[in-house]
Amino acid sequence: MQSVESIIETTMSRLKTIVDVNTIVGEPIPAGNGVVVPVSKVAFGFFSGGGEYAPMGKVAKAAALSDQEGYPFLGTAVAGVSLTPKAFLVTTGEEVNVVPATYESTLDRAICQLPKLVEELKKATRSQEVQP
Q1: What is the pTM for the complete model shown?
Q2: Virtual CA dihedral for 120, 121, 126, 131, nearest 10 degrees?
Q3: Given this model, what pLDDT does residue 42 score?
Q4: Less CB within 10 Å around the terminal CB: N or C of the chain?
Q5: Integer angstrom CA distances of residue 125 from 31, 116, 117, 120
């Protein structure tokens, strides 16, 4: 006879094979002179339940004919997994950048590009200072 514990144990062992650390931080991907590492958000839900129920109708007649003790067991388990790409870690030489997978708005994209813009402005002003 199965029990709720065995259903939960089986479902959790299956979930462990689906969601591991390589699901959240993916395998590094060589790209040119750098490496790209995907980073994802993983969410999962789990429901399990069961119990013994008194036989009714035709089932009651069949149960009455059997020599089985107790009531028949009825149980189920349901699980769902959601995997959402969030960002990519991009390394080139000694520089590491975080590139979002999606932007919520144009302002988010502008804010992410701001450090590059400041760096380019610094380079441009340095080159003008050097030339007399």
Answers
A1: 0.50
A2: 100
A3: 82
A4: C
A5: 32, 14, 12, 9
